Amino acid sequence: MPKHSTIFRKFLISYLIILVIPSIAGYVSYRTSIEVTQSVSIENGITQLERSKEILERRMAEVEGFTRQLALNPDLNALMNEKIKGDQDNVYGIWNVMRQVMPFSQTNDFLQNYFIYLSNYDVILSQGSAYFRPEHYYDNFRYNDMSLAEWKSTVLDRNHGSEIMPLRPFTNKTKQTSVVTYMQSLPLDSFSGNSPATVVVIIDEENISSLLSGLEERYGGWTHISDSQGNTISLRGTDENAAARLSGDTRFDPAKVSQFYNDDLVITIRSDKNGWVYQAGIPRHVLMENANQIRTITWLVTGAALLLGLLAGLLLAYRNSVPINRLLGVMKEHFGKEGITGRNEFDFLQGNISRMITSNRQLENELNRQLPLVRDGFLKRLIAGEFQSGEEIAAAAAQAGAHFQSQQGFVSVLRINGYSGMDSVEILNELTAARLIVKQILLELELGSNLLMTDLGSDRIVTICQVNQEEQESGNTTERKSITDMFEKLIELAYRDYKIHLTASLGEQYHSLLEVSHSSEQAKQTMEYAEYDIKQSIVWFRDAQPETATYYYPLDIEQRLISTIRAGDKEEAGRMVQAVIEKNTDNRQLSIEMKQQLVGELKGTLLKLLDQKAFLESELQFALKNQIVNVQASNPVAIIQEEIIEIVDALCGVISSKKSHAHIQMVEEMKQFIAQSYGDPELTLYRIAEHAERPEKYISQLFKEVTATNISDYLEMVRIEHASEMLRTNACTVDEIAERVGYNSAHSFRRAFKRVMGVAPSSYRQSIKI
C-alpha cells in the first residue's frame, strides 16, 4: 500500500489536526504563564521595595527619636546652658554626657557616626572622643566638597529642624564614602539665632543601600532614592547621570508604579511621610528568567509531543489505511473497477458494501422463501434413501431447517380416498386444498411438533413420526398405540369437519435416519395392501405382510449397506446386518435353501465391495476374501451373524485407515505450506484453505482432529520457533525479526512471543547471551 494514498493522507491530516489543537492550547497556556510570571515578578519587586522603604523610614524615625531623647537629657541641657567662666571646662559633665549617649550607636547602624556640637564650649562630642577644637574633628571627618568655613556655617552655626543633607562625598578618616546627613538643633524649639547645641548624624550610604541590596542581588538591577526636591539620597547599581537622564526623559512617567524603560522594568513608589522617591530597575532578561524557563520547557515538550505525535500519526494512518486499501482493492477487483471516478474511496466502499448488504438481504429473503422447497426436497431425498451417512443427513437437515429430536420413529403414508383416476385441473386443485387441510390438522395434534411431512403424488402425504426418548423406553407396543391414536384422531377430524376420507399405512420402526427410506418402502407396500382391504383405515406393515417362505433382503437394503461400509460407519453397518438377520429369523421360518440363498446374497454383497478400488489396494484383500468365502450357510444363524459383522468391521476399518492416511497426508501438506510461507503476514486460514482446495471449516476441523492443535496456534508456534532461532544466532533487531516471521507489528510479535515462550524477546536474547 503506497503511503501517499488518498486514504493514508486523510487519516494523517486528521491526526495532525488533532495534534494542532493541544499545540494551540499549549501556546495559550505558555502566553498565560508568561503574563502571570511577569505579574508575579512585578508584585515581588514592588513588595520588596515597599519593605525596604518601610525599614528605611523606621530607621530614620529612630534617628529622629534619638535627637528627641537627647533634647530631654537633663545633663545635656545643663551642660549646653552653662555659663563658661574663663578657660574652665566642665570636663566631668562632658564625659558624663558622652557616657550616656554612647549606647545608642550599638542599637542602630545609622547612629554609628554622629556628634553633638556645644556652642558655649565650642566642643564636639562624638563616640569616645571630645574635640575642643572643631578643626580637629574636621581633619578626620569632612565633606569633600565643603571647606572648614562652609562646614561651620552650614552645619554648626545654623539652626536645623530635622533637616537632611542629600548624598555628598565624605572622608571618614582615611576612608572615602558618601553620606547622608541628618541635623537637629537643640533645644527643639530653636528657630532663630544660634542654638546652644546641634546634633549631627552622618549616615553612610552603604547602610542605606544595604536595605535595598535584596533587589540588586536577586535581579541584578539598580536602586535610587531621592528626596522630594530630587536630590539623591542613595544610589546603587547606576550613576547620577543615568538617574538624571531617567528623570528628565519625557517617555518616563514618574506617576506609574511600574513601567518598562529601555530594557529595564522600573518600579517607582513615593513615601507619604517625607516625600522620598524610591526607584528600582529590574533588567528585562532577569525578570523573564522564569518565563524563559517555562518557554524553553514548553517548546521542548511541545516539540517532542509533536514529533512523537507525528510518528504515531504516520503509524496509525498507515495501519488504519492498509485494511481499507485492501478492502478497496478487493472491491475494485470484485466489481471490475480499476479506478474511482466522481467520488472518493469511502463513497465507493459505502456504495458497494450497501449494494452487497442489499443483495445479501435479497438472497436471504429468497432463501427463506425457498426454505420450504429445500426442506421438501431434503425429505424426498431422505425417503428415497439418497444419503450415504449420518453426517450427510445431519448437514442437509441443518441446511433445510429440519430438526430431528430423535433417531427413531415411524414413516407413514396418508392417502386421500375417492380421487383415483381423476386428473382434471379442478380435481388437482381440490386435492391440493385437501393436502393442506390434512397437514394443518396434523400440526395441531399432540405429536404434530414431532412430524415432518412431504407430498407423494397428488393424493398422498408421507409423514415421518419421531419418537421421544420416553416413548422409546416404554416399549414398541406403547409407541404403536400412540401413533395409531394420533392417526385415528386425524382420520376422524378430517372426515367430520371436511368430509375428507383418509387411509394411513405405516412401516416398521426405524432406529437410524439411514433406515427412514426402508420404513418408507414398507409404508408404501402396506398402502398397496390397504387398497385391497378397504375395511381398515390404519394398516401397519407387520399386519399386512403376506405369508411367504422367501428371505428378506431387498435391493435398497443392500445398496444402503454398501454405502454405509464405503462411508466407514462400522456401527451402522453392523446394525443393518443384524436387522436383516432378525427380519429373516423373527417373522420367517426359512428353509435350508432360502437360508443358503440369503447367506449367499450377503456374501455376494461383501465380495462386490472387495472388487472396488479402495479394497484392491489393501493388503487385507485376500485375507478378507478368504474370510468371506469361508462363511458357511450350515452354521447357526448367530455364528453367521457374528462372522459377517466381523468382516464388515474389517472392511470399515480399511476405509477408515484410508481416510486417516489421506487426512494425515493433507495435514502434512498444510504443514509444509506453512513452513514455506510463515513469513508472509497475509498467511491466513483462507490462504491455507485455498492452497488445500478445501473449505476453511473443513481444514480447521481436520487439522484439529489429526494434530489436536488449532491451525492458528500451530502457525504461531512455527513463527515463534523461527524467531527464537533468529534471536539466538542473528544480529537483527526485534522489529526486523518480527517482520521476517510474518507479524505486521512488533507489538503483536512481542505479545505472541511472551505468550508462547513465557518471556519477552529481549529477555530471551539476554538469557542466551548470559
Question: What is the compact description of this entry?
Answer:
Residues 668-767 form the HTH araC/xylS-type domain. Helix content is 60%, strand content 13%. It has 770 residues and is α+β, with helices and mostly antiparallel strands.
**Overall structural domain count:** 7
Report strand %: 5-15%
- Counted by DSSP, the helix tally is 29
N- to C-terminal separation?
41 Å
CATH class identity of the largest domain: Alpha Beta
User: Which homologous superfamily in CATH is the superfamily of the largest domain?
Assistant: Reverse transcriptase/Diguanylate cyclase domain
Instruction: Specify the helix fraction band.
Output: 55-70%
Please state the structural category.
Answer: alpha+beta
Organism: Paenibacillus glycanilyticus
Keywords: DNA-binding, Membrane, Transcription, Transcription regulation, Transmembrane, Transmembrane helix
InterPro entries: Homeodomain-like_sf, HTH_AraC, HTH_AraC-typ_CS, Tscrpt_reg_AraC-type_HTH
Pfam family, one: HTH_18
Description:
Residues 668-767 form the HTH araC/xylS-type domain. This is HTH araC/xylS-type domain-containing protein. Keywords: DNA-binding, Membrane, Transcription, Transcription regulation, Transmembrane, Transmembrane helix. With 770 residues, this protein is an alpha+beta fold. It folds into seven domains: 6-50 and 289-329; 72-210, Beta-Lactamase (2-Layer Sandwich); 225-287, no CATH class; 340-403, no CATH class; 404-544, Alpha-Beta Plaits (2-Layer Sandwich), CATH 3.30.70; 555-660; 678-769, Homeodomain-like (Arc Repressor Mutant, subunit A, Orthogonal Bundle), CATH 1.10.10. The chain is built from 29 helices and 17 strands. The strands form three sheets. A seven-stranded antiparallel sheet has the order 3-2-1-7-6-5-4, sandwiched between helices. Strands 9-8-12-11-10 form a five-stranded antiparallel sheet, sandwiched between helices. A hairpin with a 6-residue loop joins strand 11 (264-270) and strand 12 (277-283). Helix 13 packs across helix 15, helix 20 (592-610) runs parallel beside helix 23 (637-677) and helix 27 (734-740) packs across helix 28 (746-757). The radius of gyration is 60 Å and the shape is rod-shaped. 26% of the residues are buried. The model has no long low-confidence stretch (mean pLDDT 80).
